[in-house]
Specification:
There is one protein chain. The protein is mainly alpha-helical. The protein folds into 2 domains: 38 residues, no CATH class; 99 residues. It has 2 helices and 4 strands, in the order E-E-E-E-H-H. A two-stranded antiparallel sheet has the order 1-2.
Length: 146
C-alpha cells in the first residue's frame, strides 16, 4: 500500500470518505478515523451524523415495539381471563338449568357463552400472530443494530 499523493511512501490508513490510501503526512485525524481533505472531513462527519441519527431512530423503534408488545401481551391475558369467566358462567348456567329443569334457558346461555369463548380464542390467535411479527421485528432490528 502506497500513499495516493506520495507514491514513494507507505500508506498507514485510508480516507474515511473516498477510501484512498494516505501516509502520515497526508492523513488528517478526525473523531472517527482519517480523511484526506476538508471536503472529505465534511462528508465523513455528515455520514457519521446520519449513522447516529439512524441508530437513535432504531433505538426509539425498538422501545416503541417493546411497549406495543407489552400491550399485546396484556390484551391476550385479558381475553384469557374472559374465557375463564365465560366458562365459569356457562357452568353456573348449566347448574342452574339442572336445578330448575329449564334446559332451553341453559342451552341458550351456554350457546351465547360458547360464541363468546370462540370469539376470545380467535382474538388470542390474532394477537399471537401480531406478537410473533413484533418479536421478529425486534430481533431483526437488534441483530442489525449490533
Amino acid at each position: 500500500m502506497r500513499c495516493f499523493n506520495h507514491p514513494e511512501v507507505d500508506a498507514v490508513c485510508s480516507c474515511k470518505s473516498c477510501l484512498i490510501f494516505l501516509c502520515p503526512e497526508c492523513a488528517i485525524k478526525i473523531d472517527h478515523g482519517y480523511v484526506c481533505s476538508e471536503e472529505c472531513r465534511v462528508n465523513a462527519e455528515a455520514i457519521e451524523q446520519h449513522n447516529q441519527f439512524v441508530l437513535q431512530e432504531r433505538e426509539e423503534l425498538l422501545r416503541a415495539n417493546e411497549v406495543v408488545l407489552r400491550a399485546v401481551v396484556a390484551r391476550k391475558k385479558t381475553y384469557s381471563h374472559f374465557i375463564g369467566f365465560y366458562i365459569l358462567m356457562a357452568l353456573c348456567t348449566l347448574a342452574s338449568g339442572f336445578d330448575r329443569s329449564a334446559y332451553s334457558y341453559s342451552v341458550t346461555f351456554i350457546a351465547i357463552f360458547t360464541i363468546l369463548i370462540c370469539y376470545c380464542a380467535v382474538r388470542i390467535r390474532s394477537l399471537n400472530v401480531h406478537m410473533d411479527e413484533l418479536l421478529s421485528d425486534i430481533s431483526k432490528n437488534k441483530s442489525v443494530g449490533k
